[in-house]
Amino acid sequence: MWQALREELAPQGFELITVGMDTLGAEGCRTAIEAARPTHPALIDKHHVLADVFGVVNIPSSIWIDEDGMIVRPAEAAPPPPTDAVPAATQMPEDTPQRLKEMRAEAMKITTNAADYHAALRDWVTQGKDSAFAMDNETAIARSRPRNAEQALGHAHFELATHFVTEGKRDLAVKHFRAAHERVPDNWNFRRQAWSLEPVGDGPMARFWQGPRPEAEAQWPYEGDWVTDIKREGAQNYYDSWQA
Amino acid sequence: MLLKSLTLPVADFEQGTGWKIKPEGACKGDVCIPLRGQSGNTLDVEKLAHDMGLPLVSEASEQCWALGPDAIGGKTLATAVAPNLALPDLDGNLFSLSSLKGKKVLVYAWAPY
Fold this sequence. Notes:
With 244 residues, chain A is mainly alpha-helical. Chain A contains ten helices and four strands, in the order H-E-H-E-H-E-E-H-H-H-H-H-H-H. In chain B, strand 4 (25-28) and strand 5 (31-33) form a beta hairpin. The mean pLDDT of chain B is 95.
């Protein structure tokens, strides 16, 4: 868990800030935050400001900021410590819906290198600027997510969409989510956020369904869904490697 | 950032985008963009969007706009200086990233879906 790593590194002048990126805000994030009982700031980002200012396109992602407030690693996929590993597909109960089995099978193909990432973090916390993992300013900027005018426009559409979710105006929210998806196709969070607001059922997996109801596919308001998109893009490409 | 009007208080713009309005223009870290025809404590958002190259999207029936982020240099980061982000916790209390100056910080993004 991140909490344990935070406790380990805090005496060396390290702090962890977690940010729940969810348009449903505190309502969406409360259960997970209260269960984690964090000793560090646990914040909420309803409008995905982290996408605008840091270029966060998937979760989990991290940004490293040094003592002087300089970004030394821009947003990148941040594998959780190994104790958070996804249980094996074989452990799923027999009556698990087919869609969730497919999701789990794809999720199992996603590769991360958690041990090396956390070793890199420890190295930076200990060595500071001398760490090979701390980037200079030019490198941090160059390694940040590419963005063109069309993608920036997509971010503005996403902001409007999240506003209309808050206002309960679903049709307008869907319209602007779709405009965001079209313009920022590499942002998984923009897609997953929209899909999560079309829950199937009301159990703990409702927001993880991320796709149409069985036998009601015509009513699904988006071009893609999690299973379709990850099969098309390849599970091995779900996260950009932080080591690339 | 979301707007209800095309006239925007400077302080709101600064908090919403991480840019600072200075005599030389809109600045973030060591990057400054000159602004034309702006004065006082409010900004003309349409001029600002034009001068900074920021996208402005509207939903006409709703009297609201969204001002998108910059794409300076074709990258998310125009500068390595971290923006002074302020986000709420579960109780709605704003926490400012800059309050952790002097520490190494890892900002960890997650989602409950």
